[in-house]
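Researcher: Here's a chain I'd like modeled. Treat it as a single chain, no partners, no ligands.
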Amino acid sequence: MDSIRVQGGIPLQGKVTIQGSKNAALPILAACLLVEGPVLLENVPRISDVYGMIRILQGLGCQARWEQGLLRIDSEKAQMEDIPGELASSMRSSIFLLGALLGRFREARLWRPGGCVIGKRPIDLHRKTLEKMNVRFAEEGDRLSATARDLQPCSVKLEFPSVGATENLILTGALAEGETTLEGAAREPEVTALCEFLNACGASIEGAGTRKLSIRGGRKLHGTKFRIPADRIVAGTYLLAGFAAGGSMLLKEAPVSDMTAVCDLAERMGASLEASREGIYCQFPQRAGELPFLKTEVHPGFPTDLQSVLLAVRCLGRGSSLIRETIFENRFRIAGELQRMGADLQVLNDREVRVRGVERLRGTEVEASELRGGAALVVAALGASGETIIRGRRFIDRGYDNICKDLRDLGARIVSG
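Model: Modeled as a single isolated chain. Structure tokens:
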């Protein structure tokens, strides 16, 4: 059952609890390799990427099992092993194991990471950053090996605030003797969550959420219990879905403080939002208001992971919009699928698309080819007349615990298969 069926044109109504964050859980799972003693993780999303990371950790000798809704990881018996190519090549997040393995074993051997086809996503910045810590790299085809017999603390300035490069430096530096500083660090909430997890295990990392991090490494890390924060991208997906379908909803446990750019945008398009301790209550207009221009940015700007969903919403909005993608150069792969649904849009180049809103999209059969684009097609289907069949559910399952159940909880007519 690799498809999703949606009967569109039904306003959303109700409440849904936001799952744990994919982008926080994956580097934290990798970080468990650095910890002596068991780790208990709450609110871990049960998505295919998480299961893939668990299989990799088990292949390295870690014990990993679910206990009464918690994920228990014990890496005491972990050993340096090659990461299986089929696992590494299927998920971009395997790159986090580079820093974790270097921190634990002073060496790493893995395949070049895979994941969604949304751009080049090179790992050159990871290499340049870690080479400053005396890490040496060698490549043979798609295989990458790294060694660092004597990790050296250093001062690094990133030329671009890469989330992955920031997190790999944190993972490598947490057990390296001495102080490593990083300027130009990524400020994404998932970076903060990784720092908070490691600090809960006994690390000393300062500056999380700012452009400058200080990592005082060399401390022995102990087990802890830690709750994965709610997924701001899933919350943003459901919030934007309200513009396609109309209605109102309560997004329970939505990470309001991490969603400023998305909430501001929603209000610009005519939504009424009310934040509380319970989450975000949202009421939507019959049709999204005008939005002449939007560009994606690093946090705290509008996230690239929601650009495809916004594009789907603008296909049904008032007026014309120019959307500029500044992070990845291949985020418009769903343009053709949206056009098959009746969207009026034009891809100007690999960074810009212009879309003119129409009154209604029409249901048809479309194909998902990556995670966020797949979710965007589901959102478009909610605002379409008739039935839409989205093939390629496996891509959506990489980041959404159960998108069909969540949307059914909001009144949508959506089923798998």
